[in-house]
Design a protein that fits this description.
Helices cover 25% and strands 29% of the residues. The strands form six sheets. It has a five-stranded antiparallel beta sheet with strand order 11-13-1-10-12. The protein is of the alpha+beta class. The protein contains seven helices and 15 strands. Strand 14 (266-267) and strand 15 form a beta hairpin. Among the domains are: 1-74, no CATH class; 77-91 and 190-285, no CATH class. The chain starts with a helix and ends in an 11-residue tail after the last strand. The chain has helices at residues 4-17, 26-39, 41-44, 49-65, 69-75, 204-213, 223-228; strands spanning 79-94, 103-105, 114-116, 125-127, 136-139, 142-145, 154-156, 165-167, 175-177, 186-201, 221-222, 233-243, 253-260, 266-267, 273-274.
């Protein structure tokens, strides 16, 4: 039964559709509408998520057929599902020891790149070998000033060339590879990365698969089928997440934690539609 709000939304759809860059598919229409809503956030953020959902279908239908008959038929069939896909990759987090840099201060030179010369204890000088540090040598039976050290008993340190410090042999410029992360800056956790999709679909087969496997460890569909059927649903929100998934969750297969004909919807800060009703507890350790 058509309501006054539906009629208002259809009138709005006629105007909005002219502004959309792409209405070739429902997904294209949604992405184009999100761009408009981001620019006109003050207006659209006060519209209910349910009405924004209708507006997506109305814009698509009007963009394709200049009527709303197709949208009305699609809206009569819609269902919502959350789907997850285990990527098979362990989640990595920033290494605490090196703060993600992959390098730490050298423990031998404390990050300076040099350390005190051991030959001269940092003085830059060492005992003159010619005079054994006395400053004098014997010539023709007489003690005379040592020409090697000019009588000082000290000469420039041969190890550090008088600098008092030598370059550290354990690092480069005071930094060495972090052993905790092997220089990657990240360490693997025990959590697996997974993709979460929140979709609305009007396709009978997708709805039945999701409803039948909801909350179970049974595979809802293959990743191939999910991609093949992309024209039969709108991906309202996709997130990259991680959790301690159990071994029964195969990688690159689609699972359905939630199927609902009328879930609680909300608008995210960047104007995408989402729901907080999904649960992945059946798939975690």
């Amino acid at each position: 039964m058509m309501t006054n709000m539906d009629n208002k939304l259809k009138r709005l759809a006629k105007n909005v559709t002219e502004l959309l860059k792409n209405t070739e598919t429902p997904q294209d229409t949604y992405y184009s509408l999100v761009k408009i809503m981001e620019k006109q956030k003050d207006y659209f953020q006060h519209m209910s998520p349910e009405n924004i959902l209708k507006l997506i279908f109305y814009c698509y239908s009007f963009g394709q057929t200049h009527s709303f008959e197709m949208a009305d038929k699609m809206l009569d069939k819609i269902g919502f599902a959350v789907l997850i896909r285990n990527t098979g990759d362990l989640h990595k987090e920033e290494c605490d020891d090196c703060s993600g840099n992959g390098e730490i201060a050298c423990e031998h030179c404390y990050g300076d790149g040099t350390y005190e010369c051991g030959q001269c204890d940092g003085s830059g000088e060492e005992t003159c070998l010619d005079c054994d540090g006395t400053g004098e040598v014997e010539e023709d039976g007489e003690m005379v000033s040592c020409s090697e050290c000019n009588g000082s008993g000290k000469v420039t340190c041969s190890d550090c060339d008088g600098e008092g410090t030598v370059e550290c042999n354990y690092c480069s410029g005071g930094r060495e590879t972090c052993q905790t992360c092997d220089g990657d800056g990240e360490i693997e956790t025990e959590d697996y990365e997974y993709e979460r999709f929140f979709i609305v679909t009007w396709d009978k087969d997708i709805k039945e698969r999701c409803e039948y496997t909801e909350g179970s460890i049974d595979i809802t569909m293959s990743e191939y089928d999910f991609d093949r059927l992309r024209g039969e649903y709108i991906n309202l929100k996709m997130d990259d997440l991680w959790a301690p998934l159990n071994d029964e969750v195969e990688s690159n297969e689609m699972y359905c934690p939630l199927y609902n004909d009328n879930p609680k919807l909300y608008l995210t800060g960047n104007m995408y539609l989402d729901t907080k009703e999904d649960k992945i507890t059946p798939y975690t350790n």
